[in-house]
Specification:
The complex is a heterodimer. Chain A has helices at residues 7-19, 27-36, 41-58, 79-82, 85-95, 97-114, 116-122, 128-145, 150-178. By secondary structure, chain A is mainly α. Chain A is rod-shaped. Chain B folds into two domains: 6-88, Rna Polymerase Sigma Factor, Chain: A, CATH 1.10.1740.10; 96-187, Winged helix-like DNA-binding domain superfamily/Winged helix DNA-binding domain (Arc Repressor Mutant, subunit A), CATH 1.10.10. Chain B has helices at residues 6-14, 18-40, 45-60, 70-88, 90-105, 111-114, 118-128, 131-141, 147-154, 158-176, 179-187. Chain B is globular, with a radius of gyration of 19 Å. Classes of the chains: A mainly alpha, B mainly alpha.
């Protein structure tokens, strides 16, 4: 199109694009353009193209889909967890495969420690004495830590059990929610 | 009832007010969508990217310190996610653009080209202009933002936004003035 335009029209060309902006042109410039367009076929055509383009751009607002389709179920998850990044990071670490493995191993170890004598009797073909001795060592360590106080010892057992069971509960809750 | 400020909605969302988060997203949805579309066009990935944008916003809300406006923060997430996807698909993008540019350069007004709707032509022209201009135009028209709002979202002066929009439209007009589009436009 620019091939058809003379130097004067090139000046109007820029004004035509600005015409559709509320504050794109001064009133004097608008008047000048108003006077020119009826006398120039090139600028009339340019104005027509710009007008169609402007209308098509305006119509793009209707291309925006509803927001609901982009807000999946995560919105119903507790934001409270998200509001504490460190807690969230710890929770995520706990929920990772490694975290879950460690928790399961801890739980198994606690059970094995508690039932060490029975386990040793069942698996007589293994070195039950050594197994039992290991259990006794750990038990003795716990006794040392608790300084022989049965309440403290019980507290340690209860705390570990609560952490493990609580974690298992959270894992279950997580998979129920995801499903 | 007056509309609450973004900062108030953020605070409420952090207090587990699910509705507040929805309102916040609803308020800035068109802007985020326009930001993603300005990078990805109308490709299939837009839906996935939008979901990812809101998920990231949800997860990162606690980290939003309020130094910048929420709209600017969300825009940056949207743009980052879109660019991330775009860079992964760059090879395909180059192929598509090469085809479109070649078609435009040769003014190939074949039957298939004539059948394209005006809206498709606009999308095509938008796809050919500079990405910064395109973003400003999408925010202006698709998201219906004022120059001042775009200035805050894009973190550039208002005058620069006006220049982006004007230059972008001038460039689009040059593209749309090709004989193929004019022939098609005169048909419809």
């Amino acid at each position: 199109m620019s091939n058809h335009l003379n130097q004067n029209c090139e000046r109007f060309e820029a004004m035509i694009v600005a015409w559709f902006d509320a504050d794109g042109l001064s009133s004097a410039q608008r008047g000048e353009l108003n006077a020119h367009i009826p006398t120039c076929a090139s600028c009339r055509e340019s104005f027509e193209v710009t007008s169609r383009m402007e209308a098509a751009l305006m119509a793009r607002r209707s291309d925006v889909p509803a927001v609901d389709s982009f807000l999946p179920a995560f919105v119903s998850a507790p934001i409270g967890a998200v509001s504490h990044p460190k807690l969230l990071a710890a929770f995520r670490a706990l929920m990772s495969p490694a975290g879950i493995s460690i928790m399961l191993m801890s739980w198994t170890a606690m059970l094995a420690l508690h039932f060490r004598k029975q386990i040793g009797e069942v698996f007589v073909w293994t070195s039950s004495d050594r197994f039992s001795a290991l259990g006794n060592d750990v038990a003795n360590l716990l006794v040392t830590i608790s300084r022989g106080d049965t309440h403290v010892l019980t507290g340690i057992y209860v705390a570990v059990t609560v952490v493990v069971l609580g974690s298992m509960g959270l894992i279950t809750l997580r998979y129920v929610r995801n499903s | 009832m007056p509309h609450p400020e973004d900062s108030e909605l953020v605070a409420r969302a952090l207090r587990q007010d699910e509705r507040a988060f929805r309102d916040l997203i609803q308020r800035h949805h068109a802007m985020a969508y326009a930001a993603v579309r300005s990078v990805l066009g109308d490709r299939d990935e837009v839906q996935d990217v939008m979901q990812m944008v809101y998920l990231k916003a949800y997860q990162g809300l606690a980290g939003f310190r309020g130094d910048a406006r929420f709209s600017t923060w969300l825009y940056q997430i949207a743009r980052r996610e879109a660019l991330d996807v775009s860079s992964k698909r760059r090879v395909e993008t180059v192929d598509v653009e090469t085809v479109e540019l070649a078609a435009g350069a040769h003014h190939a007004a074949d039957a298939a080209t004539h059948e394209r709707s005006e809206r498709e032509w606009i999308a095509s022209a938008l796809g050919e202009i500079d990405e910064t201009y395109r973003t400003a135009i999408e925010l202006r028209y698709m998201a219906e933002k004022s120059y001042e709002e775009i200035s805050e979202i894009m973190s550039v002066p208002v005058g620069t936004v006006k220049t982006y929009v004007h230059r972008g439209k001038a460039e689009m007009k040059r593209i749309l003035s090709r004989p193929a589009w004019r022939a098609d436009a005169s048909k419809s």
